[in-house]
Amino acid sequence: MPTQIDEKTLSQMSTLAALPVEPSQEQQTLAALNEVLDLVAMLESVDVDGVLPLAHPLERYQQLSTDAVTEHVDREALSRNAPDFEAGLYFVPKVIE
Amino acid sequence: MNLRSATIAELRAHLDQRKLSAVELTDYYFERIDRHEPTINAYVTQLRETARSAAVKADKIIAAGQATALTGIPIAEKDLFCIEGTKTTSGSKMLADFEAPYTATVSEKLANAGAVTLGKTNMDEFAMGSSNESSYFGPVKNPWDTSRVPGGSSGGSAAAVAAGLCVASTGTDTGGSIRQPAALCGLTGLKPTYGRVSRWGMIAFASSLDQAGPMTRSAKDAAIMLEHMAGFDPRDSTCLTEAVPRYSQHLDQPIKGLRIGVCEAFFETALDATVATQIREALSILESLGATLIDVSLPHMTASLGAYYVIAPAECSANLARFDGIRYGYRCEDPQNLQDLYTRSRAEGFGQEVKKRILVGTFALSAGYYDAFYGRAQKVRRLIKQDFVEAFSQVDVIAGPTTPTPAFGLGEKAKNSVDMYLQDVFTIAASLAGVPAMSIPAGLVSGLPIGLQLIGNYLDEATLLNVAHQFQQTTDWHTLTAPEAP
């Protein structure tokens, strides 16, 4: 378990999360993230050999529902929160030049 | 009856006997909000018009003799429950202008029961925090001492009840976000078993941990609220199908012979000595009521904070990936291209704490680190669950402190986030295991409230509520009210 994130890893994470970190904020962000990793390092001392991961606290399977339409999506209502929406389309900056 | 501190149960009698109308009660609370909200900052949005219409409707239902326990009762909802046509912000700039297109199951159930929703309460951004200081809408003040935090993330919900700005409220708890603010504001707060309450329409933080619950002035009120909030919902595939007991009808069982587990590890950490003394006293009160105190061991509890700060950020990084500035939420000005739109909208829309947790979660889930962090944390989570399963083979309830200290000062822990995370050191294990847990008032330390945490077995909220109610029949800590804010 690596205990520290360096500049290179931070840059990778920033790309993956689509969350740019300003150069002026880089050291501060690294310090904050590594503070959390220092806390998380306590997991290393736990013997987890042969232990299965637990994803659902009650270990239940998700409920299945019948394959039938029960609700209708109100597209107009959903689009009202879109920053740029017109004629049924979400507008974004030009993708193909 | 003092309306400012009245419980749901007390108000019910007054409403049904027509000593008071739901409209008068609603007006009373809005007058209090006008007076104290500028200091407390508990609400992000006030719903005056819809509240008044709901109160008028409630009075008609009461007149027809068809009232439920909640008809005409003024409540507040944490601002992550979607209510159709209402601003729902989750305490974030990202959703500052978001108007919910549908209503959360919890909110729908409470409205159907006749509750009058006065407004949406302030909270830590996306429920990430223990002080309510990460809200885009400014910090909430603790009504007991306005230089201190109310706890978080359901800080606005807690402060609203404690300041007499509503009778009861809804909160959500991912690692302690109902119990910790309840403790710091002198309230009763309950996090149900994972899946007991539907998460549909609740803005997600960490989906395998998030659970909604009530924040109230008594255990009886918590029972009334929970029985109206809980139950199977086909729209949430993790929602449990078990029938919901009438919790409020099962509060009078004597606790003689009840086995209460005490984990000494709770008292060996950073627990304030005065809080420890007060909690020991609360335990002896339970003993005097006939309960037997039994030592239990939760050997992996010390690792719970570590497991939580991998699992919760991992799930948050996935859940918050949906905020891209396109379909809803904040969009940056003049994006240069699609990538710029994504990244700048997220960088400008999220606050510091949220960004940090997204980055930690992204790291924990990324190739090369997944097994060492996320995989290991999930294995530790199983060990924590097994600790509780083992403990509940010996005892009916586990009792201990909710928080290490009473409310701390605004800004006091802003510089060191790990210090802030330690606020939840006693509450996180129950969240990871998915068992129900609650906090009830257990005294004052330097004039500030502290909480006794009661943890129950899976789906045994009824026993928790009964123990809490019996404790509140003997003590009056829950009846104390915060001084009036300026």
Word description of this protein:
- Chain A has a domain at 7-45.
- Helices cover 31% and strands 4% of the residues of chain A.
- Chain A has helices at residues 7-16, 26-40, 75-79; strands at 85-86, 89-90.
- In chain A, a hairpin with a 2-residue loop joins strand 1 (85-86) and strand 2.
- Chain A is flat, with a radius of gyration of 22 Å.
- Chain B is α/β, with parallel strands linked by helices.
- Chain B has a domain at 3-258: Amidase signature (AS) enzymes (Alpha-Beta Complex), CATH 3.90.1300.10.
- Helices cover 37% and strands 13% of the residues of chain B.
- Chain B contains 15 helices and 11 strands.
- Chain B has helices spanning 8-16, 22-40, 48-63, 105-112, 155-162, 179-185, 219-229, 273-288, 304-319, 338-349, 352-365, 371-391, 417-421, 428-433, 461-474, and strands at residues 43-46, 74-78, 116-121, 168-173, 188-191, 211-216, 259-262, 292-295, 397-401, 437-445, 448-456.
- Chain B has an 11-stranded mixed β-sheet with strand order 1-3-2-4-6-5-10-11-9-7-8, with helices on both faces.
- In chain B, strand 10 (437-445) and strand 11 form a beta hairpin.
- The mean pLDDT of chain B is 97.
- Classes of the chains: A mainly alpha (97), B alpha/beta (486).
How would you briefly describe this protein structure?
The complex is a heterodimer of chains A (97) and B (486). With 97 residues, chain A is mostly helical. Chain A has helices at 7-16, 26-40, 75-79, and strands at 85-86, 89-90.
User: In oligomeric terms, what are we looking at?
Assistant: heterodimer
Morphology call of chain A: flat
What coarse outline of chain B follows from CA principal-axis ratios?
A: globular
Mean pLDDT of chain B: 97
Strand order of the largest sheet of chain B: 1-3-2-4-6-5-10-11-9-7-8
Main sheet overview of chain B: 11 strands, mixed
- Overall average pLDDT of chain A: 91
- Say how many strands of chain A there are: 2
Gyration radius of chain B, rounded: 21 Å
- How is the CATH topology of the domain at 3-258 in chain B named? Amidase signature (AS) enzymes
N-to-C SSE string of chain B, H for helix and E for strand: HHEHEHEHEHEEHEHEHHHHEHHEEH
Gross CATH architecture of the domain at 3-258 in chain B: Alpha-Beta Complex
Could you tell me the strand content of chain B as a percent range?
5-15%
| Low-pLDDT runs of chain B | none
**Helical content class of chain B:** 25-40%
